[in-house]
Specification:
By secondary structure, this protein is α/β, with parallel strands linked by helices. The chain contains twelve helices and nine strands. The chain has a five-stranded mixed sheet with strand order 3-2-1-4-5. The chain has a two-stranded antiparallel sheet with strand order 6-9. The longest helix is centred in the middle third of the chain and has 30 residues. The chain is globular. The N and C termini lie far apart (about 50 Å).
C-alpha cells in the first residue's frame, strides 16, 4: 500500500493537486496542465520523498489523459475515477464546499480509503486511433449542424455555409482515410479489425470506434465490464414491496460509445439474421422496441469483446434462437 496519495482535480489549463501524507495532512500545489507542469509536479513529489504516491484523478473530458500517461510511464500507480464516484463520496462525507482545492483533497482521501484499481496506460496506437475517431465524430456533428443551416440560409450567407460544408466533406474524407491507414499500418489493430468485420451489422466506422476503446481487452475482466464502460449495464430500482421502478441502463459510462452503437444496433436488428432472431425473441417476451434496441447495443459490445478476447471470428451458431 502506498504511503502517499495524490489527488488531482483536472481542468483544461491547470491541475490542482493535494498530496495526502501518511498522517492525513495535506500539501497543496497548483501546476499548469502541460508537459512542463507535469515535470514540475514530478520534481515536487521527489522533493517530498513521495516516489511511491498513488495518484488519482477524475476522468474529466480528455484533459486527464496526458498527465495520467506521464506518471503511468514513470511507474507510478495511477487511478482514473468516474466523476460520479467522487461526487457520491463527497455527499457521503457531507462535503458542503466545492472548490478545486477541496475537490483535490476529496480525491486524495478517496484514493487513500478506497484504494481504487490501477489504470493501465494505453498504447500509442490506441491513443492515436481514439484521437482520430473522436475528431471524426466532431467534424460529422459539425457537418450536420451546417447542413441544417444551409437549408434555411439567406442568400447573403448561403455560399459561405456551402463552402464550409465542402471543406468539412474533404476533411471527413481525409480523416476516414487516415483511420484506415493507421489500422493497416498496425498488425494488431489490423488483425482485430478483421475479427470485428466478421460480426454482421458492424461496419467500418463502428469497427474503428470499438478498436479505439476496446483494442486492449485486458482492461476488462469480462463482457459485462465492457458494456458497463459504455454505460449500457442495467440499473435496477427497487425497495421493499411498494417501490419497483423500471430497469434502465445506468448511463454511467462513455456517452460517445452509446451514440456510436445506436445505428449499428438498428441495422443488426432489422438487416441481419442473428439480429432478427434476437429481436423476435425479445418481442415475443413482451419487451418494448426501445428496450430491444438498447439490449442489442449492449449485445454488440459483448459480442465484439468476446471476438477480440478469444481471437475467433463471429460464430452464428452461438446466437441462434
Amino acid at each position: 500500500m502506498s504511503t502517499f496519495h495524490l489527488g488531482i482535480d483536472v481542468a483544461k489549463a491547470k491541475l490542482d493537486c493535494a498530496l495526502r501524507l501518511k498522517d492525513g495532512k495535506i500539501h497543496n500545489k497548483v501546476i499548469a496542465n502541460t508537459a512542463e507542469g507535469f515535470e514540475q509536479l514530478h520534481a515536487w513529489l521527489v522533493k517530498q520523498q513521495a516516489n511511491d504516491s498513488h495518484i488519482c484523478m477524475e476522468a474529466t473530458g480528455v484533459y486527464w489523459e496526458e498527465v495520467a500517461q506521464f506518471f503511468a510511464s514513470r511507474e507510478f500507480k495511477v487511478s482514473v475515477i468516474n466523476p460520479v464516484q467522487i461526487k457520491a463520496y463527497g455527499k457521503s462525507r457531507l462535503t458542503r464546499s466545492k472548490t478545486d482545492a477541496v475537490d483535490a483533497k476529496l480525491i486524495a482521501d478517496f484514493c487513500a480509503e478506497r484504494q481504487p484499481a490501477v489504470w493501465q496506460a494505453r498504447s500509442e496506437q490506441e491513443v492515436i486511433l481514439r484521437a482520430l475517431v473522436l475528431r471524426l465524430e466532431a467534424l460529422q456533428t459539425m457537418r450536420i449542424q451546417e447542413s441544417n443551416r444551409v437549408e434555411v440560409a439567406r442568400d447573403a450567407v448561403y455560399d459561405n455555409i456551402q463552402a464550409h460544408l465542402d471543406w468539412l466533406d474533404e476533411q471527413i474524407k481525409q480523416l476516414i482515410s487516415s483511420i484506415n491507414k493507421h489500422i493497416d499500418q498496425n498488425p494488431n489493430l489490423k488483425q482485430q479489425r478483421d475479427l470485428l468485420d466478421s460480426i454482421p451489422g458492424i461496419g467500418e466506422r463502428t469497427t474503428a470506434v470499438i478498436l479505439a476503446f476496446y483494442a486492449d481487452t485486458s482492461r476488462f475482466d469480462n463482457s459485462r465490464q465492457a458494456a458497463a464502460f459504455a454505460g449500457l449495464d442495467p440499473r435496477q430500482y427497487q425497495s421493499g414491496s411498494s417501490v419497483k421502478g423500471k430497469p434502465r441502463i445506468s448511463k454511467v459510462g462513455h456517452a460517445f460509445l452509446r451514440k456510436a452503437l445506436y445505428m449499428p444496433a438498428m441495422v443488426t436488428l432489422y438487416k441481419t439474421t442473428w439480429g432478427k432472431q434476437f429481436r423476435e425473441r425479445l418481442a415475443s417476451a413482451g419487451k418494448p422496441p426501445k428496450l430491444i434496441i438498447v439490449a442489442m447495443m449492449r449485445k454488440l459490445i459483448q459480442v465484439a469483446f468476446g471476438v477480440l478476447k478469444s481471437e475467433k471470428v463471429f460464430d452464428f451458431s452461438l446466437h441462434e434462437a
